[in-house]
Amino acid sequence: MTLLEDTKYLEVEIWRGDAAGGEFQSFQVPAYESQTILDVVSWVQQNTDPGLTYRYACRVGMCGSCAMMVNGTPRWTCRTHVKKVADGDRLRVAPLRNLPIIKDLATDMDPFFDKWVAAEGKHHPSKSREDQIEQIDPENSARVEANSGIECINCSVCYAACDTVAGNPDYLGPAALQRAWTLYNDARDAKKQVILDAVSGTGGCHNCHSQGSCTVHCPNELNPMKAIAGLKRETAISFLRKAR
Amino acid sequence: MLDLRLYMMQRLSAMFMAPFVLVHIAVMVYAIQGGLSTEEILGRTQGSVFWFLFYATFVIAVSVHSAIGLRVIAHEMLKLNGLTLSVLTWGICLVLLFTGGRAVTAVTLL
Amino acid sequence: MRKTYRGHPLWFAYLLHRVSGLALALFLPAHFYLLSLALTAPERLDYFLNFAENPLVKIAEFGLVFGLAVHMFGGLRLLALEWLPWSANQKTLAASAVAVSFLISGTFFLQAI
After folding, report:
1. Is the C-alpha dihedral spanning A226, A227, A229, A234 positive or negative?
2. Among A27, A75, B83, C69, which has the minimal tally of Cβ within 10 Å of its Cβ?
């Protein structure tokens, strides 16, 4: 590729490889006034190397599919501006941490979603279609607590930021546990104790060290650390009740 | 590598120990003045039922707390698992109980 | 890479809690062994207590007292975080735990020298 004299370029290193291993490859990408990390990656794929593998869908921060490590920090790349995170004109883009790599920047999200299910992060209905629809008071404190977690887009940024996941691969992780806490506080969920039991195993909420990287990096500014603390409190109360 | 039961033992032993740690630090600040000697330590503690019970309970709580804490570190940093991890946890707990028990009897019994 | 996902206050609070906990747990058997000498070999215990007059040992003792205090106050913060209603000022609480621990271990150090 010929570099143009009057154009500014970003020095971009992108991780290339698969599950067996790989290395960073350098690219020069024209710098624009307003440019996201996803724009940069897409520019490489469209102009330099069509074989570059990565994942995205909505480009507006709703689908949760484009998260990558950018200069060592997990980020939603479609809503992250180059200006905010570049080290001078340098960018280093890598696949999300704590997940198996499929190819280049695309990781295998299966462990992340499997844990979501293992934490009972699924609805347990309390009514049938024959019943009246339940009235939910939006001011109710449990509902307010549940609401605080529902904007999760499953992007796995918190999971990639968590050192407890890195040290303990069985650990369910911030997103799945926050989902469990949301359902635990949902008046329409019928199996509260099933949820508490699901998060009390050897990979459960009790392994969390409250490092808070999940909360610091969540792109939607949710607070998984607080949700996990809630699960610890409720499981501790149920433990003491049983002991009596 | 903590289930609910181990977590509760870890947290309850911690909560129980906090006042013991405060007293321990206060005694240290008081006793360190002018240096330490065997005579001085024994003069305070020997034959005292209070200090025997204080340090004996402290040793039991700290043995439980340290064993579980080191278990977590061994799992996360050394990737130990299963039986090895259980043996290590119990081993640390017993070693601390034994050496701690010897220390308590040495300084409090006549 | 100057800054990574780890560089924030509560992560450092975690690191301090882990390092202090590990150090205290490894120190305990030595602590217990020395005290048990009171019964079996008092003259050797006195030898070690004299050795503790060495300025470098005083500094190490300061480190141990700081570690003990910061593990306790940091641990109380974690207990409150987990079992009491949520409070959003965790960074301030973690910093306070470090400050109080420094004050206490500083007092110890001033008494020791």
Report:
1. positive
2. B83
